[in-house]
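Proteins fold reproducibly. Next comes a concrete instance:

***
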Amino acid sequence: MPTKRTLYNAFWLLAIVCLLTGCWDREELEDKAYVIGLGLDRSKHEGKIIVTMLLANPEVGSMQGGGGSTEKPREIISFNANDFIAAKGTANAIISRNISYDLLKIIVVSEDFAKDKDFISTISDVLKDKEIRLNSYLAVSKEKAKAYFKKNHPKMETRPHKYFQYMIDHGVDNGLIPDSTLFRFFTAYERGTELFLAMNTSAEVGKNPNVKGEDEYIAGQVDATGELDDTQFIGSAVFKKGVMIGKLTGQETRIVNILDDTTNIKDILVDIPDPFSDKKKQFAARIMKTEDNKVKMNLKGSKPQIFITIPVKIEIMSNPSMVDYTKKKNQRILKKQIAKHIKKVDEDLFKKAQTQLKGVPFPLALYARKYFGTIPEYKKFNWNKSFLNAEIKVNSDIEIVDFGKTTKKH
């Protein structure tokens, strides 16, 4: 016969099990309106901002929604607010479902507002909302964020969260946009020794844009035609101390991504001037980075010296001059040309960083710390000021692993 203690324990065990299997805190999917994209603009009303919410309907395209659903896949609302945290309450006066930032993928801020000194205090509200993940992305649009979301109409993706996921993932992989997560933004801001790059995007294509190299554009400059959405992701917006100060092209952004060992970029396709042609032809190559860069510094004296070696593997993808790459002489010429090109574009970027941007757009200062015995010594060195006077040399350790199909002139 069971004792009183056994019955007592069994009672409490049963009670705990019942609590674990209960659904008192269950939230239905259809009860929530998920904000996928958040737009921030400066308001004409003092102390206010314009908040734009791109809301996704989670049932469209899902099994619950079925194939014959007539509901819209998204909805966009804009209104004035003090901040985008309390704005969720205001939005519920318009939207029947409970507003949630759980699935927020991207925050788009207009250039106009990004250049405002008050922007950093606005975006810092991210750190106060538990729903917003720091792996969400920060982007800057040429136009108002409100107009950007209204003009964004993807042709192949009806679900907005998938569209932004694909565009961002592919853009980061090929190096045309930076990996501008909120975590990286606040990390760069707190360190104060580097500039931050946010992805540049636009849904407005300029009239009669100039034709440039494949990666030399910024968002809104790519002249593409056809049945497609006008939204473009290419290049980056440069932030210093939480305020936008300039832009980098897609090519310059790629260079930073290769120089920055904290990015996950593995390989990119680029065009390089053909050394065997006098008609400004270029050959396509795949640059693969499998190792970290080698950085050495001499920080003594009034003119610090920084030496960077970039180890890369190269695949030759085209041969416009129809040169025979089986010949060792031609291989040496090709390798020398690649090294010359990498050196030029990298050192040109550093020159722009020193003279125009007044800062380095990746955490190069982390390499400098090991040259000082104490933190006070490092602070006395004053990296932000010393970098502007530094002599920077970039070289590459190149291994051509594939010359492509060999073609001879006839």
